[in-house]
Amino acid sequence: MQLIDEDTITQAVIARHARAADPRLRDLMTSLVQHLHAFAREVRLTDREWQAGLRLLAEAGRLSQGPRHEFALLSDTLGVSALVAAMAPRRAAGRADAGAGAGASAGALPAAIEATEATEAGRAAPLPNAETADGAAPCFLRGQVRGTDGRPVPGAELLLGADGTRLPADAQGRFQARVQAVAAQPLPTDGPTGALLRSLGRSAWRPAYVPVCIRAAGYRTLRTQLFRRGDRHLDADAAFGVRRSLVADWRPHDSGPAPDGSPCERPFHTVDFDFVLEPA
């Protein structure tokens, strides 16, 4: 019978993974155990603290129903979603940057890990008393979809805005659409993630953004968020989704002809932005 104590428990657990059929799973779980045990030792974790952590995870699981994904929110607010997204271009192409314009990014959403369309839609749903940032002034987004080689991506499929406006890019990869931005608003705070943020004295707010999803044959799907320059929550995004390369100018215009030629009886904004897709 193996002697299990504070000094031997880590290697005992790792040894049980030796026969895992999937070597990647074995490596992941070995590293996870090593880091978890090192954390517990470093902070001298108490049983009371560990039980509180287990209750947090249990409550997150209970709330992860339908469009609500509490574990994704927890991942976002701890910066893990942003870290995984930031490492994606390097893993795929062996380089640190995807090129000019917007690189691959999970949004708050995207959002977390590889959040489902339903989860993203749930996060983007309007909340009571949400900050509207210039109200509901119409916004027209236009630009070009290119590959990392600078060449246009003709016919790329774009899904833009909180209302999911769908359109194809033209033969030069160009697009133009009236989009609905998600107003600056807090993440759901009625669960364990909100309680944790309050305990840490952290804001739950996210800045206003335009959800973006772009697909094209031969390219990796791009899910990202385009942010408005000047939003007061840019430097304190609770989900750590803001990137300098994803902040754009919302240019104000008086009422009159819109970029698509239609009459606009209210003031509106235009946003010019190009997106870059990585090869699959």
Question: Explain this structure to me?
Answer:
The protein is an alpha+beta fold and 280 residues long. The chain folds into 2 domains: 8-43; 117-277, Protocatechuate 3,4-Dioxygenase, subunit A, CATH 2.60.130.10. It is 30% helix and 22% strand. It has 7 helices and 15 strands. The longest helix is centred in the N-terminal third of the chain and has 21 residues, at 23-43. The relative contact order is 0.15.
Percentage beta strand: 15-25%
- Taken in chain order, the helices and strands follow as HHHHHEHEEEEEHEEEEEEEEE
For the record, give the distance between the C-alpha atoms at the N and C termini, rounded to a whole number: 51 Å
| Spans of at least 5 consecutive residues with low confidence | 94-135
Radius of gyration: 22 Å
CATH topology of the largest domain: Protocatechuate 3,4-Dioxygenase, subunit A
Number of strands: 15
> Quick one: CATH superfamily of the largest domain?
Aromatic compound dioxygenase
Proportion of helical residues: 25-40%
Name of the CATH first level of the largest domain:
Mainly Beta
Overall mean pLDDT: 84
The coarse silhouette is elongated
Count of alpha/pi helices: 7
Task: Please state the second-level CATH architecture of the largest domain.
Answer: Sandwich
Helical/strand content category: alpha+beta
Domain count: the total is 2
Largest sheet: 5 strands, mixed
